[in-house]
Design goal:
The complex is a heterodimer of chains A (112) and B (121). By secondary structure, chain A is mainly β. Helices cover 0% and strands 43% of the residues of chain A. Chain A has no helices and nine strands. Chain B contains no helices and eleven strands. Classes of the chains: A mainly beta (112), B mainly beta (121). The A-B interface holds A 2, 32-33, 35, 37, 43-47, 50-51, 56, 90, 92-94, 98-106 and B 37, 46-49, 52, 60, 62-63, 96, 104-109, 111-114.
Chain lengths: 112, 121
């Protein structure tokens, strides 16, 4: 069971928008930055969002991130969905109590 | 362009030591601007962080693995290594090496392709 909780799956039609939540606590998301990763089948994860809402160069602005203050919830948003966005998405952060990097269990995005 | 490449045996016997190396190119580890992590993913499951090392040799391990784990760095070869002892079938996974921040260590901007390690007799 993961320290960070993500919905197992989400789906939406091409062109639509989807959000993926990542729920933690005050010892992890509530006190640290959240990052998001995209893992296409058979490949290594790819950094999509860092420091809650920043995009590395080359990541389109269709991808966005946010964090709800100190409540311990991060959210990944994807607009203009494409079939190529079908992948597993993971959130990650540092946990002050566990003294470790922790990840969510992953969310499988299906673009119908 | 920064590239990371894992290497090591794909099959390890139970109770033995799993050893992997990550070769870094396109960036000098001794520049000191990053942390270097190992992350694994059991087949069909999620990501699990194992530990990180700085070029200085300072390490931080996942507490539940600490007793079996050793990560080292060879700055002359621009690579870092993982040793995990007393392995069991539960250690079967794709092992990734990744570059993280020096302060925010969990922001992994470059990853290796991963190498599958199977623990089996």
């Amino acid at each position: 069971q993961s320290v960070l909780t993500q919905p197992p799956s989400v789906s939406a039609a091409p062109g639509q928008k989807v959000t993926i939540s990542c729920s933690g606590s005050s010892s992890n998301i509530g006190d640290n930055y959240v990052s998001w990763y995209q893992q296409l089948p058979g490949t290594a994860p790819k950094l999509l969002i860092y420091e809650n809402n920043k995009r590395p160069s080359g990541i389109p602005d269709r991808f966005s991130g946010s964090k709800s203050g100190t409540s311990g919830t991060g959210t990944l948003g994807i607009t203009g969905l494409q079939t190529g966005d079908e992948a597993e998405y993971y959130c990650g952060t540092w946990d002050n109590i566990l003294s470790a990097v922790v990840f969510g269990g992953g969310t499988k995005l299906t673009v119908l | 362009q920064v590239q990371l490449q894992e290497s090591g045996p794909g099959l390890v016997k139970p109770s033995q030591t799993l050893s992997l190396t990550c070769a870094v190119s396109g960036d000098s580890m001794s520049s000191g601007g990053y942390s270097w992590s190992w992350i694994r993913q059991p087949p069909g499951k999620g990501l699990e962080w194992i530990g990180y090392i700085y070029y200085s040799g300072i390490t931080h391990y996942k507490p539940s693995l600490k007793s079996r784990l050793s990560i080292s760095v060879d700055t002359s070869k621009n690579q870092f290594s993982l040793n995990l002892s007393s392995v069991t079938a539960a250690d079967t996974a794709v092992y990734y090496c990744a570059r993280g921040g020096v302060r925010v260590v969990d922001e992994f901007d470059y990853w290796g392709r991963g190498t599958l390690v199977t623990v089996s007799s």
